[in-house]
Amino acid sequence: FAAICPDCAIAPGTPIEKPTPVFLRVEAPEPPPLPSEPAADANSSTDDDSWLDEIQDFEAAVREQGELVRSLKAAKADKAEIAAQVERLLKLKSRLPTAS
Length: 100
Prior knowledge:
Elements: H1 42-74, H2 79-95
Helix pairs in contact: 1-2
């Protein structure tokens, strides 16, 4: 180093002070606490199953409408009537929740 900058060289035996940090210690923040799970009670299981009952009822309605459309097609019913029932079936199917 003395060959590059002769004026910058430190003489042997020169006392060097204890180094101090330039900035304070950086620590990662504590993650937020996890939400506690609600206590299970007797009524919560019936509330949790209510959505399942609704879906099953809805699937039954779609199934019935599909059978109606099939029976109309088999009976060679009026095309306008079949189209109206197919449209109703498609609307029911579009509102049916999908598994994700």
